[in-house]
Amino acid sequence: MKEIAGNTIISSLSAQFEAFEKQLNGQSKSAVHQVRKAAMAQLQTAGLPAARDEEYKFTNLTKALAKNIDFDQATPAFNLTPEAIKEVQVTGLDAYKLVFLNGKYSEELSDTISVEGLTVLPFQAALKDKQDVVEQYFGKKADLESDPFIAMNTAFSMNGVFIEVADKVVVDKPIVLYFVGDSSAAKLSYQIRNLVVAGKFAEATVIEKFDTIGDNESFTNVVNEFSVDHNANVRYFKIENDSDQAYHVSNTHASQEGSSTFTANTIALNGAMVRNNLNIRLDGEGCESHMNGLYVLKGKTHVDNHTVVDHVKPNSYSNELYKGIMDDKSRGVFNGKIFVRQDAQKTNAFQSNKNVLLSDNATINTKPQLEIWADDVKCSHGCTTGQLDQDALFYLQARGILKDKARAILLKAFASDVLENIDNKAIKDYLEAIITERLEA
Amino acid sequence: MSNDDQILEEFTSKEYEFGWTVDLEADEAPKGLNEDIVRFISAKKDEPEWLLEWRLDAFRKWKEMKEPTWPNVHYPKIDYQDIKYYSAPKKGAAPKSLDEVDPELIATFEKLGISLTEQKRLTGVAVDAVIDSVSVATTFKDTLAELGIIFCSFSEAVKDHPELIRKHMGSVVPISDNYFAALNSAVFSDGSFAYIPKGVRCPMELSTYFRINAANTGQFERTLIVAEEGSYVSYLEGCTAPQRDENQLHAAVVEIKAAANAEVKYSTVQNWFPGDKDGKGGIYNFVTKRGICEGDHSKISWTQVETGSAVTWKYPSCILKGDYSVGEFYSVAVTNNYQQADTGTKMIHIGKNTKSRIVSKGISAGKSQNSYRGQVQVMKRAENARNHSQCDSLLMGDQCGAHTFPYIDIENKSAQVEHEATTSKIGEDQIFYCQQRGIDEESAVALIVNGYAKEVLKQLPMEFAVEAQKLLALTLEGSVG
Prior knowledge:
heterodimer, A: alpha/beta, 2 domains, ten-stranded mixed sheet, nine-stranded mixed sheet, B: alpha/beta, six-stranded parallel beta barrel
């Protein structure tokens, strides 16, 4: 067998997979489990990203995980108080709430949702109750071979949420998912698999928030699959403000049918190493996609955002705006790909990535990538990196504003481009408060 | 069939106009590559022992290296044992005047429109003509010699100025830099060497015209330009190659060194055989070009017009080591039919207050793929580095592709780096506007494309600008509506 990256991790996972299969009993023959088996096989042959892997060039997760995470160990018990869980929640957010503790669904802390046309189930329950729908969509958008962490997640997919919105149903409130981890006693690692299926003309908002409490290292691996049918409108938020020892990987794959709209807001504020893959496939005519991203980093936080927008059919529009502020020894990585396939004539695709470095030890690696095979398109990308405008800083100082305060004002203004695009007031206020506090410190 | 399609058809079926073969009596090495071939080349060229060792060292490193697969180009695997690595036009004593030059060779140049006599008399350009790897005629040497400028073939330089060659060769592109650079270092046949002494401004454009001539011969040129403190030189490189069915390999290395306050301007027009309209034949062009701004306030500027070759892999780069040094890259890359180009630049900011500028204009037509791949790197101690990159793509027809891969890596907070890219086609409204004013469609396209590429073309020295514009017009006339 050829030497693959992350050997030790994979052998631990292989052993876990055997144990996992044993406790499945009757379910091991199901279609879903066949996908899991294929995923495990893929992981065993391809391995984790190697040190020189182009997609993980600046983010050596394999090495970091091998060093910091114990994959042999079972998930530790969750011992946090209800108050601690409450603390990480967004205040004033009117939403349907689901809470996951160390990856496991907590019925006690979650709301009971009864809205006509809306099905929200823990993933495990959906495997039984909604088997046909799960089988139809599971593993279809997130390609096993495209990313080793998708393969890893798929092999163990058991925890997470299944959301189905029936045709023409508009969900009145956002659905918020709180993933709370307790790493105070031991190292923690868990995986989450979410599946969201929105029917024709349906509308829904899904919010994910990740928090780990405790001083030990933690690892979360999340895969989200969104299927957005004709004329549907789906908004997705991801708020990641994890502990300094948190390693986090997420893969979000959305596929849009004609005239649908999909909006992704990805906010990364803290963690040890965070990798977000966001892939949107515009698989119908007249689709609209919006991607907003913000990363405000300090300490040694390393945040890597990889986005792919794949225009497959004509007359679609995509707009992407990612902004970052890097301080101390933090590192920001951005890689935005836009593909415009041969059929996708009359595509309009825009991408912008703007960064501010506040320290000489901070680093930014950015790669805005355009690949175009259709001629009648309008595509552009822009990317800037710089420091604060000294003239603007002077202007404010000249008017009696202290330098630190002036700096915070300018940085907040820089970040506000992204925050302005967030149409949920509670979330916007919540993020603004964190960022203001961060910048004024 | 619409008028557009008709014009497109006409254009895409156009044969390569500069295609022919001249039968020169070649002095060739057998096919294949091993240590003996490296020794054969070295012996043939009467090289000193140290250079042979250098070549062998490169060859050993090359054997351990793997051909890169990351460029966005696809071509059949090259059999490196099926290539002749040395082929020289027959020669007696080194020619002192044009009379001694093979008349057939003169005819070749005349066909290309760069007759040596004419060049010599009218344009004042010193031409170091390279036919199949060996320099056969050098002009204006005497004028340059008076100023202390050395401009000669690489092999002559090895004989006459070994200390300079030994000092500078491989110092910008080390032998193990990459697969093709290592190959070149092992088997390079000839090339050009230019040395500009301290404080001298070279009074004329230095120019080399390359031609690939004998069948199945890889051409491995090596160029070294050394500009001492406060000097200036503008260097031109231009190429056309005869039509041929088998793919030919070209792996050149160009090294530039600029000392404090020196300025080097390097311009290329490349029009090698791109393959016919079915993608058959054509040159593989895998080139390593790199310059280093060693001293403060030095400047290196690359300008390239790429219209030829079936596959191009080329990234002229600048290492901005001296404080206040400047790097520039201007490029127009045109691909048509089945051509593939993966080209761009690297700007590595090391010194303080360094500046770089990148302007890349890609034009793809037919079934071609055109990629820009560039890197801007600002190192930790490079205070106040400044970069602006612009890479635009123009697509003609719905079968071609334009790709942009810019890498931007910044480790200093005072850096100001901007990158912008757009992709579009020629607007129907633009064509309509021209037509309305009595300009026919074909001229309108030429006008718009020339305007699109003007930012780059205007960087070319006069002698080249004309040829480049002709080439652009020739390659693109009437290719879209």
